[in-house]
């Protein structure tokens, strides 16, 4: 039901035709040079050279009147907004995921994740709109340092696409978007630059294949 490509999304995008994708759900680097307690890091998290061209390509490959769900780094939200607007996206919603735990504590306890809902054109309204505050379960981050839970992504994919639509994640990480797309009966294309995370995602998605055949 899908493909997971090893490579830099900016190198892969030219092979994806205009208007061939029905939904994008992605968790790009937050531009914060993140490193977890075990020393794992994320490619291109220390610079924003890729940000504007990547979102321009995302806008190109999406069909008209569709959506993109993008997580973002809140300390760099100005750079993300600039990239989204330059690409031609229109902001149509903001989603907060409520964590039952703190991922970090400094001046505040960090207990939420957030994403913007972006539009290309005028997407149709969903029959039953999701709330803009949604639950979040800890993924364990076993396969990737910022691994997103499938349970948080699946409702978004179900709400903003139709069965057998193509869902793209150009920063696929551990493959959570791809796994969520598979779970709700969508096709997927994932792109991941890091060979270790790509291999983790491939094993994860391969494990889902027997369920599809059963």
Task: Describe the fold and architecture.
The protein contains seven helices and ten strands. The protein has 214 residues and is α/β, with parallel strands linked by helices. It has a single domain (2-196), classed as Vaccinia Virus protein VP39 (Rossmann fold). The strands form two sheets. An eight-stranded mixed β-sheet has the order 1-10-9-2-3-7-4-8. Helix 5 links the parallel strand 9 and strand 10. Helix 2 (51-61) crosses helix 3 (77-87) and helix 4 (150-160) crosses helix 5. The longest helix is centred in the C-terminal third of the chain and has 12 residues, at 195-206. The radius of gyration is 16 Å and the shape is globular.
Short précis:
This protein has 214 residues and is of the alpha/beta class.
């Amino acid at each position: 039901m899908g493909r997971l490509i090893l490579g830099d999304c900016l190198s892969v995008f030219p092979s994806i035709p205009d208007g061939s994708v029905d939904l994008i759900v992605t968790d790009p680097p937050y531009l914060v040079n993140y490193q977890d307690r075990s020393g794992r890091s994320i490619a291109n998290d220390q610079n924003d050279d890729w940000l504007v061209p990547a979102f321009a390509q995302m806008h190109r490959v999406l069909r008209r009147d569709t959506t993109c769900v993008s997580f973002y780094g809140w300390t760099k939200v100005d750079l993300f907004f600039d990239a989204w607007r330059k690409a031609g996206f229109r902001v149509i919603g903001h989603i907060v995921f409520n964590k039952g735990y703190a991922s970090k504590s400094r001046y505040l306890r960090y207990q939420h994740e957030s994403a913007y809902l972006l539009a290309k054109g005028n997407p149709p309204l969903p029959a039953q709109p999701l709330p803009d505050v949604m639950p979040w379960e800890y993924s364990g981050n076993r396969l990737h340092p910022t691994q997103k839970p499938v349970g948080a992504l699946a409702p978004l994919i179900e709400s903003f696409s139709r069965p057998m639509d193509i869902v793209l994640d150009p920063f696929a990480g551990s493959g959570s978007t791809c796994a969520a797309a598979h779970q709700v009966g969508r096709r997927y294309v994932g792109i991941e630059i890091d060979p270790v995370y790509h291999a983790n995602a491939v094993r994860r998605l391969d494990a889902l294949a027997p369920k599809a055949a059963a």
